[in-house]
Specification:
Number of domains: 1
Number of helices: 10
Distance between the termini: 52 Å
Structural class: alpha+beta
Order of helices and strands: HHEHHEEEHHHHHH
């Protein structure tokens, strides 16, 4: 997958046009309805390019909002009994953030196809739509799972950004232990294997200390949280420097831009304290 350069991505993100219609809805639905029928390239200056850009940038802003929410919720789950869910939450936060990063640079991974950059020149930008497969002109991968394919494409694409990113943040652009599917493999293990989940719970109980957090997080949880945190910082920094602003979050009610809404709706809001209204007696 080919991405925009830094200045090209800034131009792409700064030209949100608030197009109405299908591009106000889900990105997958827009792709299925408007980018099918043999469409292979979309060029700047055509209505479909502006509609796609608006749809993609709206999706980016939604992804960034929910990635911040996942980051906040992962912090709430930092107790031994919930530590497997802290891991899963951090994984999905990383997954959402990675999608947002690709989107700002003009790339999307759909189920069976990808969109990436064929020309980045501001004013003459062009995106290409290609099938995932092993044929001529297709986006190739050796992985079969949807999340596996995504991470393989992600790490190959963002490698071009490495030279422009400060070393502490560039960690997020490199596969963990050199394995592009490390994150999803560990998520599957923690999420679906009760033995692995309980092992993480036991390790958390032995090592966790609020005073030394996040260094006290055990093993895979510490690694996943660290990568998520850095990827989130990097992606939000791009969103700010690119001037990303859409109407995707207007229905939330809170005023302002993305960061204002995150502060108000993610960090300032308090959990409703519902334990007393549940059937906890059934399990205690």
């Amino acid at each position: 997958m080919k991405l925009f350069g830094i200045n090209e991505a800034k131009y792409f993100c700064a030209n949100f046009g608030a197009s109405p219609g299908a591009c106000q809805g889900p990105l997958d639905a827009f792709q299925a309805s408007r980018l099918g029928g043999g469409v292979r390239r979309i060029a700047e200056g055509t209505p479909i390019f502006q509609e796609f850009r608006d749809c993609l940038l709206r999706d980016v802003e939604r992804q960034l909002f929910f990635s911040a929410s996942q980051y906040r919720r992962a912090l709430d789950l930092m107790v031994a009994s919930a530590s497997p869910w802290a891991y899963v939450t951090a994984y999905y936060g990383s997954y959402y953030t990675a999608h947002a990063l690709l989107g700002m640079f003009g790339a999307v991974v759909f189920g069976r196809s990808v969109v990436d950059v064929s020309r980045g020149t501001p004013g003459r930008q062009e995106l290409s739509i290609r099938r995932i497969g092993n044929g001529p002109g297709q986006e190739m991968t050796t992985y079969s799972g949807s999340h596996q394919r995504f991470w393989d494409f992600f790490y190959n694409a963002v490698s071009t950004l490495g030279p422009f990113v400060a070393p502490p943040l560039a960690i997020a652009l490199n596969p963990i232990s050199g394995d592009p599917i490390w994150q999803i493999a560990k998520r599957n293990e923690i999420n679906y294997d009760s033995f692995a989940g309980l092992a993480l719970t036991q390790d958390f109980a032995k090592t966790f200390s609020k005073a030394t957090f996040p260094a006290s997080l055990p093993g895979v949880l510490g690694t996943q949280f660290h990568v998520f945190e850095i990827l989130l910082e990097l992606t939000y920094s791009y969103a700010s420097s690119f001037g990303l602003r859409t109407d995707a979050l207007d229905g939330l009610g809170a005023p302002g831009g993305l960061r204002d809404r995150v502060k108000e709706l993610v960090y300032r809001v308090k959990a409703p304290g519902l334990i007393a209204q549940t059937k906890k007696a059934a399990v205690t």
